[in-house]
Amino acid sequence: MKKFLIPAVMVLAASSAPALAADLGKMVTKAPAPVAVPSPFDIAVGAGIATDYNFRGISQSNNKASVNAYFEGRYNSSANLQWYAGIAGYSIDFPNRASAEIDLYGGVRPTFDKLALDLGVLYYYYPGGQCFFGGAPLLAGDPSCNPALPNGNYAKQDVSFLEFYAKAAYNFTDQFNVGVGVFYTEDWLATGADGTYGNVTAKFTGPALANGWGWYISGEYGHYWLGTTDTFFGSALFPTGTPLPDYSTWNVGLGLTYKAITVDLRYYDTDLSKADCNVLTGDHTATFSAGNITATNPGGLGSGWCGEAFVAKLSFDTTLSALK
Questions:
Q1: Does domain 41-323 have CATH number 2.40.160.40?
Q2: pTM recorded for the entire structure
Q3: Is the separation of the CB atoms in 223 and 198 below 8 Å?
Q4: How far, in Å, CA of 222 to CA of 246, rounded?
Q5: 237 CB contacts (<8 Å, ≥6 apart)?
Q6: Cβ contact 200:221 at 8 Å
Q7: Which is nearest to 250 in space by CA: 49, 54, 52?
Q8: Could you check whether the bond before residue 137 is cis, i.e. omega within 30 degrees of 0?
Q9: How many helices (H) and strands (E) does the chain have?
């Protein structure tokens, strides 16, 4: 009987050993942590202050300081395709007394390895404007407007307009990229003139500096092709509308970065004369000079909004994903 029981117990113990080992294994082995799946949604926000709001070579803030901020929602439908929509605001000083620019925009950003595209539409909205009618010798205009501006220039109440754009950037290295862009509107600043702006950009990001600082050098060359205005901006020589001057613009600058903070120091210029600058801007601070009298600028006013400018800007930019 004992001879039978001992082997039986041994067999039972041997047969139960794997089960016991398995049970012990479950007790000491941790389940793998779930892999965190990044959200396809993101938000980008930023704000800044600059000594001037210079846009495509022309001051939008009367050569004075300007503040700005933006909010942009993003959806990454795949690793190489991002949809976005946003709103941005700038303080300005326009001849029609508008003091704010509100940009509403949206589009898509596909990437193909080192090539990044950006296709979208942007609406420039300028609330709070007033109408100013130039009067003689400028024959067009709206008699229901306010009298001419003190210097004789005139402006429409609403200069908002819609623009379509296509941009491409290629990263030759992690530090150097080149971009091109085309921007089109059929009603530039509500003048009735179509406008096409093309540009080339380049940026070199230098090696990191001490204590987390970074730096870059960037520049842009652009050209604006502009059409003919509607009758509001006509004159004795051009009663059906004034042909607007095309122009070239360029800028180059040095930037310093620290985490989400950027300090950008930049030089801007254009090939516009003061007379042509006045034709494009209707500058309410423009002054008279006989040398500024031209066929398209019969009033002889000259504007300083389109010349050499040195602009310093401090900005903060981040994303929700970067804060997590």
A1: yes
A2: 0.87
A3: yes
A4: 11
A5: 295, 296, 298
A6: yes
A7: 54
A8: yes
A9: 3, 16
Structure tokens at 168: 């491409």
DSSP 305: S
3-class DSSP state of 30: coil
Contact between residue 268 and residue 311 where contact means Cβ atoms under 8 Å apart: yes
Residue with tokens 């093309």: 198
% of the chain at pLDDT higher than 70: 86
Closest to 74 measured CA to CA, from 320, 259, 262, 316: 320
Assigned token pair, 100 = 């704010």
CA angle 133, 57, 146 (to 5 degrees): 10
Q: What letter represents residue 64's amino acid?
A: K
Q: What is the DSSP string of 121-189?
A: EEEEE-TT---B---TT---S-TTSBPPPTTS--B-S---EEEEEEEEEEESSSSEEEEEEEEEESSGG
CB 263 within 8 A of CB 313: yes
- pLDDT above 70 for 28: no
Range name among 13-22, 35-44, 70-79, 239-248 with the lowest pLDDT average: 13-22
For residue 167, how many C-alpha atoms fall within 13 Å in the half-sphere facing its CB? 18
What secondary structure does DSSP assign to 83-137, as a single string?
Answer: EEEEEEEEE---TT---EEEEEEEEEEEEETTEEEEEEEEEEE-TT---B---TT
- Sorted by sequence, the CB contacts under 8 Å of residue 71 that are 6+ apart come out as 43, 44, 45, 86, 87, 88
Task: Find, among 149, 109, 152, the residue nearest to 131 by Cα.
Answer: 149
